[in-house]
């Protein structure tokens, strides 16, 4: 009998990339308790496969395996780990089309976007393969007679990673490649909505020669698995990307084992348009910054703040551009927006729109009768958005754009900072004084000026306030997985200067 999951496998050039097991200690593993969960294509609501839900002892077995494997992995030279990571990078690139197909089927994003994410995810593997060779310590001028002082960098230990469904591949590689390059074994818990990208990465890691126990993918009931990972003292670092709500829970649950925490949490990005801007240029950029991944992006422009002098023309241009966006199944043809991840996300988006309208916002566009399926949400434009509305206060994580007019730089700074979040902000203006003033005053970890694209391997990605702790990528991303060991070599023969 042909099942939908065999149909998925048949779409792939290499069907072995589609795995319906967890991956622990180099073995494909089913759940010992027999529990499993279906994974759905959000575009059609059809089950595309099943995953096992592991039992507590199986999660602990993954930690045992990582602990055993750590001894050898950390002992490799940095250039030896680099070779394995570069092999992984090559395999990800070589299997780009299959990885994109898997991603579109489980996440819903259009195939071109999925291909872009594979490329983006792979770029972190190459970056950290190289960075692993540059984890320098330092020499410290000694204040102690006849002693030499310095530091060396050592891997922190087993690193657990809990990742979201909106970027099912890149959110894993940005963490895992850094940890592996630093010499740490990794245990990944992907979102249950999008496990198959993670499992395909595990298959490719094995082919790349990453030893058993070093890259593990555990699956299970999220709260259950996370509790075990947080309370396990042998796990020394926990890196999480997801909502601020779950991030807070993980901080609490990790307190007893005092782990190294890296948290990439929610955003509520302001998109500020100055009075000097061409309304059309700014509106087109705002549409791009709002609707990628159907608005399910931590960097999505959530509050669009436009100077009152160009507000009406900006709204007209935005409306026109938004009307040209196509919504549909990401597997088919040229589609700009795929479905939202599930029905609850659609309901949340509808509630945010209703809340705004009930508090006086105007809905300029967004006819939901045109939605091509249960999980689709047509792009919505709201004007007259105010700070009391959910669309302002919450990360809507949907294709809902809210526009507000402002009258001065000081006012827009106050508006932009009026949130518990502080991940990313956009500024559109060509006035250098305004750019500098806004860029310095915005309480955000990342500020992008006149550019929608801001991310990539060389960039220290991360937020302030309740958008997170730590930075991923860039020159410091590997530090999240390294300890600094200070040494004092005393009673040495006298050497010059000490
Ligand atoms: N800052 C960033 O880099 C970044 C990047 C991508 C996504 N995000 C954020 O992620 C969120 C969307 O992703 P999401 O809906 O998957 O987030 P989420 O917090 O619901 O889930 C993230 C991960 O946590 C797990 N999880 C869910 N409930 C849990 C619980 N009670 N205990 C322990 N683990 C639990 C999930 O299974 C998943 O693996 C948005 O807020 C978005 O801004 C942030
Ligand atoms: N687009 C972000 C992911 C946020 O959801 C990234 O580049 O990391």
From TrEMBL:
Matches recorded under CDD domains: ALDH_F5_SSADH_GabD (cd07103)
Keywords of this protein's UniProt record, alphabetized? Oxidoreductase
Q: Which domain of life is it from?
A: Bacteria
The active site consists of 264
Pfam families associated with the record:
Aldedh
Q: What InterPro entries does the database record attribute to this sequence?
A: Ald_DH/histidinol_DH, Ald_DH_C, Ald_DH_CS_CYS, Ald_DH_CS_GLU, Ald_DH_N, Aldehyde_DH_dom, Aldehyde_DH_Superfamily
Gene3D superfamilies referenced in this protein's UniProt entry, alphabetically: Aldehyde Dehydrogenase, Chain A, domain 1 (3.40.605.10), Aldehyde Dehydrogenase, Chain A, domain 2 (3.40.309.10)
PROSITE patterns referenced in this protein's UniProt entry, alphabetically: ALDEHYDE_DEHYDR_CYS, ALDEHYDE_DEHYDR_GLU
Q: Which family does it belong to?
A: Belongs to the aldehyde dehydrogenase family.
Name the UniProt record assigns to this protein: NAD-dependent succinate-semialdehyde dehydrogenase
Organism of this sequence: Vreelandella piezotolerans
């Amino acid at each position: 009998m042909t099942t939908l999951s065999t149909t998925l496998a048949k779409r792939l050039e290499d069907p072995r990339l589609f795995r319906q097991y967890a991956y622990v200690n180099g073995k494909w593993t089913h759940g010992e308790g027999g529990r499993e969960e279906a994974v759905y294509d959000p575009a059609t609501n059809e089950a595309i496969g099943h995953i096992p839900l592991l039992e507590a002892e199986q999660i602990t077995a993954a930690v045992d395996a990582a602990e055993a494997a750590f001894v050898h992995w950390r002992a490799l030279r940095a250039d030896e780990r680099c070779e394995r990571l570069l092999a992984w990078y090559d395999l990800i690139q070589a299997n780009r089309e299959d990885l994109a197909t898997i991603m579109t089927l489980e996440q819903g994003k259009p195939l071109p976007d999925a291909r872009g994410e594979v490329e983006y995810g792979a770029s972190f593997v190459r970056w950290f393969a190289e960075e692993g060779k540059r984890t320098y310590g330092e020499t410290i001028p000694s204040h102690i007679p006849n002693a030499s002082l310095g530091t060396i960098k050592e891997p922190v230990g087993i690193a657990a990673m809990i990742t979201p469904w909106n970027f099912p591949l890149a959110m894993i590689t940005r963490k895992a490649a850094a940890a592996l390059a630093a010499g740490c074994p990794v245990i990944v818990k992907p979102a249950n909505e999008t496990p198959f990208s993670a499992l395909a990465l595990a298959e490719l890691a094995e082919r790349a020669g990453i030893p058993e126990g070093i890259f593990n993918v555990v699956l299970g009931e999220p709260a259950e698995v996370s509790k075990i990972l947080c309370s396990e003292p042998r796990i020394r670092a926990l890196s999480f990307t997801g909502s601020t709500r779950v991030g807070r829970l993980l901080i609490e649950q990790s307190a007893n084992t005092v782990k190294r925490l890296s948290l990439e949490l929610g955003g509520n990005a302001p998109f500020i348009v100055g009075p000097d801007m061409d309304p059309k240029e700014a509106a087109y950029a705002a549409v791009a910054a709002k609707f990628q991944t159907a608005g399910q992006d931590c960097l999505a422009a959530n509050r669009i703040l436009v100077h009152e002098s160009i507000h009406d023309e900006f709204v007209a241009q935005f409306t026109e551009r938004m009307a040209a966006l196509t919504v549909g199944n990401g597997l088919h043809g040229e589609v700009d927006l795929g479905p939202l991840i599930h029905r609850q996300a659609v309901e949340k988006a509808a509630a945010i729109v209703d809340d705004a309208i009930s508090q006086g916002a105007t809905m300029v566009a967004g006819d939901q009768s045109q939605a091509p399926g249960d999980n689709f949400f047509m792009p919505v434009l709201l004007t007259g958005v105010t700070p009391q509305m959910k669309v302002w206060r919450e990360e809507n994580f949907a294709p809902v754009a809210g526009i507000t007019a402002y009258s001065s730089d000081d006012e827009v700074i106050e508006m932009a900072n009026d949130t518990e979040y502080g991940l990313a902000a956009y500024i559109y203006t060509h006035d250098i004084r305004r750019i500098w003033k806004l860029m310095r005053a915005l309480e955000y970890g990342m500020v992008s000026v006149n550019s929608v694209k801001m991310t990539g391997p060389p960039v220290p990605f991360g937020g302030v306030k309740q958008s997170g702790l730590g930075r991923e990528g860039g020159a410091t991303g590997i530090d999240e997985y390294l300890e600094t060991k200070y040494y004092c070599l005393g009673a040495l023969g006298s050497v010059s200067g000490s």
